[in-house]
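tool_call: predict_structure(chain=1)
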Amino acid sequence: MRKRNIKKITASVCLALALALGTTGCSGKEEAASTVAATEAPAKESNTTEATEEAVAEAPDFSAGISDDDAAGAVTAEGASDITVNGHNVEDVSGSEFGDQYIGRDTVSITYTAPNPTGLLPQTVTKDYEFYFNKDSGSWEALNETLTACDVNNEALPGSNWKASTTNADTLSKLFGDEVPAGDTGALYIHFNKKVGLFAFNMKNEKNTSEERFFTSNGTGKFTWVGEAGTVEKSFNVVDGSVTDAGDTNITLKTDVDSVSMNFGKDVLPISEYEYDIALGLEVEEGKVYIEALPVFEVTSTSMDGANWRQATGSRYDNISPELTWEGYEGASKYMILMIDKTAFNWLHWCELVDASEETHFDEGKFSGLDQGYVGPYPEDLHEYDVYVIALANEPAKSSFKVDAIGEDIHSKLTDLNTAADGSIGNVLAYGVIKGGFEP
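tool_result:
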């Protein structure tokens, strides 16, 4: 096409020169040649039209957009998992700034679980990926991506305990001022209170990139420096932070001195409540149960679809309790069944105390309704629900908890159950747990 256009332009220039000179620019053989050229001109025009129509007919068809598998493959290459393609928007961009090479664009909305090497704060991310159709190669290429949503499961934070793997003098100075003597050696411990606020991501935050999301938050906690010169404590507020595709979680914590951003999962590592209490020399209350020290037995359920509880267990559906089967634990005379919504601050959905001699299995639907101690899940979006089966030596002093209400976490409930009805301590023997989500 480009050569044909050049020839047309050359012929037009010749004609203009001839008119300017007042002559046809042809005589004798030249005139005959001109006549032949004029005679052939319609045929050339016809050939050009046919070639153009043929080129149009042979132009690649990109109207179907990129396939879901190929779109997901681009995200898989980044280490993502649980990939869902939400939709396509195919456009013709030929003639635009992309037209020389790219003639089509498919904007694909994709939701995925970001890589999480630390195992902490798993995140679900949604992005619009822009794939462009390369007319030369006849293939789609990913050239741009835009963050549209991010949801982080921060259930690891409320009530959790951490230890800094390394601590430098500058960090200590920003947190404690001059309350920690220069050159003191020791360890820094961090405790989040149980009601640390959920992350609120601002998609319009100009600091956001496709690989890193910034959030605001609220909540409080406590720093404790255990050093050779003594122990120093400081309260902190959770200010903000960010989470990356690579799994880095940076949280900014502010004391009355200054603020410090810490990488949780790398520079700061989780420790158990038992480790925390021992390290800080805390007086352990009588009867307190450390779940990390308890034996664990298996609990199974057929009332799950993959990783989620069946819809029938939800209170807006059939509102029936899930099927449960567990191993009998030696020495147990009672089992306490608890279903806790971890996402909604330990909202209790099921509480049932049964005799060990009678039950190590519940059929699905054995309990239904508040009067039977069961109110099924009813979240507006995906929540996580843990079902515990707790083996008890004897009748507990506290034999029930309020259902369909916010409550203490499992650690506090275990401590309550650890006191028997006769006042003896050590009533909790072991436990089993099965976890699953519920999404309406």
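agent: The CA atoms of residues 184 and 229 lie 7 Å apart. Proceeding to next step.
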